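Take just one protein record:
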Amino acid sequence: MNFPEKLSQRLEVRSQQNALRRLSQPNGLIDFASNDYLGFSRSEAIFEETHQYLVDQNMMQNGATGSRLLSGNHSLYEVTERYLAEFHQAEAALIFNSGYDANVGFFSSVPQKGDVILYDELCHASIRDGIQLSYANAYKFPHNDSDALESLLLRFKRENAATYIVTESVFSMDGDTPPLEIFAGISERHAAFLVIDEAHALGVFGDNGCGLVQQLGLKSKVFARIMTFGKGLGCHGAAIIGSAELKQYLLNFARSFIYTTALPPHSVATIFISYQQLRAQHHSQQQLKSNIIHFSQTKSLHSLKGLFVYSKSAIQCAVIPGNEKVKAMAAHLQQSGFDVKAILSPTVPSGQERLRICLHSYNTAAEISALFNSFSGYL
């Protein structure tokens, strides 16, 4: 069967730009690439506790059997969502199958026709895809620019229409943080609804890894928080944290929630046990913070601070413009034993290609120092 010519042409263009994506295989290198910030994905304790919990609850089944509104709403959902709401000091939590599903479900259903969405220009693709499915009017503002945000808000705010301000507490490609307290003040002054994706803050910031919103005491000023479990929790799924009324609305109108098979009991139990582990095991969070500090100090010692985006998170990015140049740098680091990935355009804008280095609780100070030695040697 022939392949459509237009699709072949698009693949060829991507290949010519040295930006053709391919699936990678496990490589045994020192991990500076994954989002498993606390090492929970490799935790034998979480694996064993999850298995035992399922046995104790007599939940030995492989699948959910249907959507949550039909047959898939097994008892672990209620237990876990109640625990999440208490952990995040909110009225309610609603679990989605992934962070992508949560963002698409929220932004495609909550903002209504005539409403206004103001979103950071670097917001994740899942947020942007959800916005595209919405009937609201959407405008992007320059990255982390509170003055530009308020200017847009004054320009586009309409009577009898809701305004949603959308940002992330830690950005996935830069690792930086917006002025959340200022954004909360702006949303409060203008009666806007603040929505914050905390995917890369969960497990990293705040007491017990609760996230930046709670660390800054802003939970009462945020309309919705999106918590994704595939990063700091090392498992799968996501939850939207907010009011009980928001939860009721989403389970009635969020299509990515309604029309999909629910997560199986094992996935939900892993989320539940991982959250309990956040409270019980502070060593991983403390070690991650120490590694972030050591990385920053070593970066300065090698006079490389100017290459990196300012970040206090587990995500550290060195901007090296050009797909070929950044891929060559990543290949050198990989040959030296470090799993560091190049982020290419069009994932990031042309000229903003970068090495994305992720830090973990299980990285050692010696590994971080060796990484910089290899980095400096190549430059």
Summary: The longest strand covers residues 163-168. The chain has a mean pLDDT of 95. The longest helix spans residues 283-301.
